Amino acid sequence: MTKIIRITTVPISLKILQKGQNKFLASHGWDILGVSSSGKEMKDLEKDEGMRTKVIEMTRTISPLKDLKALRQFYLLCKKEKPAIVHSHTPKAGIIGMLGAKLAGVPIRLHTVAGLPLTETSGLKRRMLISVEKLTYRCATKVFPISYGLKEYIINERIGSSSKIKVLGNGSSNGIDTIRFDPENISSDTRLALRRELNIPPSDFVYLFVGRVVTDKGVNELVSAFDAVNNTDPDCHLVIVGNFENQLDPLLDETEKRIRGNKKIHTVGYKDNVEEYLGMADVLCFPSYREGFGNVTAQAGAMGLPVIVTDITGSNEIVIDGKNGLIIPVKEITPLVHAMKKIKDEPELYENLKKNAREMITSRYDQKFVWEALLDEYRKLLEEKELG
Q: How far, in whole angstroms, is CA 346 from its chain's centroid?
């Protein structure tokens, strides 16, 4: 049985961003060992995905001493387990996984790039992040960006060698579960019950945001834009699904005041049943500054939901402007206000976007297609190394 170690910085990435994927690989005869920091999700993985797990504590911030400790532990784990493949995901797990695996002599070292925090930094921090990213790619035998725009950025910025870089299928890290994210599964009773819970009348228009509630996701602009829309149209609401991350990327104080002061803005925290919130809403607003792919945008599309996104890597591959959503400039409030009004006030446009939304996801990003592409790549790499 071929052994593979998959490593992420935090366990929720293994649980959520790879949901079902490791179970699929195990069903095809792979011995999967998941490595991440401690968390309740590690036990869930053993039960739900049928994989072994190992805790190695890692931080999402720069922490030289802790990083060196994690690197040593991962190196020793590789020497003990002797995997044929190490596959890393997320930036910190990338450098620890790829460098540790190379030092331990692991023959196939793969790194998935889901996004690049360095695109929103400058000065010394940017140079440091670029150096870490370059070292990660040098240690890897293959690098998998999850969108074609991300691949182009990596090559154009000379962060990695084009010969190593490949997008699997049409992109995405795990594809979209088009069975779970299907509007037919959300009954009108569920939709109405969720609205009642939030004190939203059945006929009111709901803008939805799903993601980390941080500056990087465009939440400051979204809240400002919603206030402007709500001033002239009181029969609309903004529902924000996701956790605030005040330590890593806090919102502006003014934004937090606006959220607290507007009864039409509803913050509900992180939710496992995100498909029900997508089914309850009328449009997804996702004005992010950067994305590798934009899973929530694709999930919304699978739910038949029109979307408003910024013109950034990943999002502008999922959305075709005027066909399944609207694309606006990044970090700008006025175009977001116009798009939010347009999508609400033009029923013919809205229905056309809605009609196209699901098919544009199922035809390109269905989960099984993405899983098969990954499995084929693993098998091909084993044959090339004569390990299969």
A: 30
The one-character DSSP state at 251 is: P
Domain 183-365: CATH architecture, name and number where available: 3-Layer(aba) Sandwich (3.40)
Residue ranges of domains in the chain: 2-175+367-384, 183-365
Q: pLDDT tens-digit profile of 280-335? A: 999 999 999 988 888 999 999 999 999 999 999 889 999 999 999 999 999 999 99
Written out in words, the top-level CATH class of the domain with range 2-175+367-384 is alpha beta
Find residue 110's DSSP bridge partners: 87, 142
Per residue in 363-380, pLDDT (tens digit) is 999 999 999 999 999 999
Q: Which structure tokens are listed for 213?
A: 């509630």
Please give the model's pTM, rounded to 2 decimal places.
0.83
Output the six-digit token pair for 54. 């190992």
**In the chain, what is the straight-line distance between the N-terminal and C-terminal CA atoms, in Å?**
10
How far is the C-alpha of 369 from the C-alpha of 361, rounded, in Å? 12
Q: Bridge partners of 241? A: 210, 269
- Residue 8 near residue 89 (C-beta atoms within 8 A): yes
Task: Specify the residue for token string 């069903």.
Answer: 27
Residue pointed to by tokens 């033009």? 346
CB atoms near residue 125 (< 10 Å): 12
Q: Which string of b and e fits 308-320 if b means at least 16 CB within 10 Å?
A: bbbebbbbbbbbe
Other C-beta atoms closer than 10 Å to the C-beta of 148 total: 14
Helix 91-103 × helix 123-139 angle, to 10°: 40
Write out the DSSP string of 142-154: EEEESSHHHHHHH
